[in-house]
Every structure is written in C-alpha cells, then in structure tokens.
Design goal:
- The protein has an eight-stranded parallel barrel, surrounded by five helices.
- The protein is an alpha/beta fold and about 220 residues long.
- The model has no long low-confidence stretch (mean pLDDT about 95).
- The longest helix is centred in the last third of the chain and has 24 residues.
- Helix content is about 40%, strand content about 15%.
- The chain starts with a strand and ends with a helix.
C-alpha cells in the first residue's frame, strides 16, 4: 500500500524521495513535486470538512494546465509512458453523485491525451450505472463516507483490480481506514494527515505503514 501525501515540508519530501511515501498534487496546493517520487493528481472537487462539495476545482482548462506542468516536472519520456512517475490524474467529479460525475467523464480522454493515466472518481450510485471501464486507468474511491465503506465501493474496487486498474482511496486519515483500504484491494490511499502537524504525524504515519506491512507479511506466511 502506497500512501500519498502533500509534500509540505523538507522532511516529508525527503521521505518521498526515498520511496516510503508518494505525493498527491492538486490545483490549490502550490507545493513542488519532489524528485523521483511517485505521485497522483487530485482535482480539489472532494468534500470539505463539513461534508459539502469542495470548491477548489479551477475549471477544465486550468486543471489541464496543471497536468501539463506536472508532465514537464515529471520529466518522463513522452514516447514511453512506463517511464512516468504519475499513477493517475483524477477527472473532475461531483461528491456523492455518480451520474453527475459520469457526465464530466469527457475529461478522462483529455487527461490521457495530455499524457497521464486517468482516474474515474467513484461516487455514490456508480454500482447502478454502466461503468466505462475502457475509458480510464485507475479507480479512485470517493463518495460519502457511508458509501465508500460499504459493499458497493468494495465490489467496484475488486472488479477494478481484476480488470488491471490501479485502485485508490481518498480521505484516509487513520490506521483503521488504511487497513480497510488495503483489505479491499486498494493500491494506494491519500489523506490530509500530514497537512497538519507534519512533524508529529510523519513518524506515526510511517508506523502505520510498517504495521500494515507486517500484518500482510504474517498473513502471507500463515
């Protein structure tokens, strides 16, 4: 399990460069991408602390500008997608509304055309709709808390894994949530845990990841 965080401090960026964490980049953030770091791009559509939809999405044109800037910062060979460190760039979404999110899925093709893998953000109700599996490279588990921790999101995550898609969960800010994301087959997760008090929270987060690794090792050895 790879945890993606905001590259806010020199200590956090150093851990990312060593490969212990990945970076989550976004339009509102303004942080520099650390060298030799796996990263993903969020769209700032996610919910605020009060659960209401976020208002940080800058619009399609400016978001694609961010994607293109990060392509330059990534420095990968544009003729060799495997050389990129980008895991995915999330298409714009509407919190807790899969139907409205799919209406914005035209951006997935634009992200791919720009040169990065595209992620569909799964929202409440996606299980009742036709999922355009061929149109994206990663499934980002978003949605309301109740939905993302329920059977529909779990089943979508497992189907995505079976189809060879990268699976990511957002808003993971506790060891319990990290364990859950791992249990349903997520490859990565992100949260704001290191945005606040990174000096104190960085060793705690690394401890979570070590515990998760030890638990998985014991399961595989049993």
């Amino acid at each position: 399990m790879l945890y993606l965080a905001n590259p806010t401090t020199p200590a956090v960026r150093a851990v990312m460069t060593c490969g212990f964490l990945g970076a989550i980049m976004s339009p509102r953030q303004g942080n520099r991408l650390p060298e030799q770091t796996l990263f993903a791009i969020d769209n700032n559509c996610g919910p605020r602390k009060n659960g209401m939809p976020g208002n940080g999405y800058p619009g399609d044109e400016r978001y694609l500008g961010l994607v293109q800037n990060l392509i330059q910062a990534d420095g990968a060979d544009l003729c060799d997608p495997e050389s990129s460190s980008c895991l995915f760039a999330a298409g714009p979404d509407v919190v807790a509304d899969a139907r409205a999110t799919l209406r914005r899925s035209y951006m997935l093709a634009w992200i791919r055309h720009a040169g990065f893998p595209a992620a569909l953000v799964a929202q409440d109700g996606l299980e009742d709709l036709t999922v355009p599996w061929d149109d994206f490279d990663a499934l980002f588990i978003g949605g309301s808390t109740t939905w993302k921790l329920g059977p529909a999101a779990r089943d979508l995550a497992r189907e995505a894994s079976q189809r060879g898609k990268w699976v990511h969960m957002g808003r993971v800010n506790s060891f319990k949530r990290l364990q859950y994301a791992d249990s349903i087959g997520c490859d990565s997760a992100d949260g704001t845990y290191l945005t606040y008090a990174p000096g104190a929270n960085l060793p705690r987060l690394l401890g979570w990841l070590n515990r998760l690794h030890d638990q998985r090792t014991r399961r595989e050895a049993a």
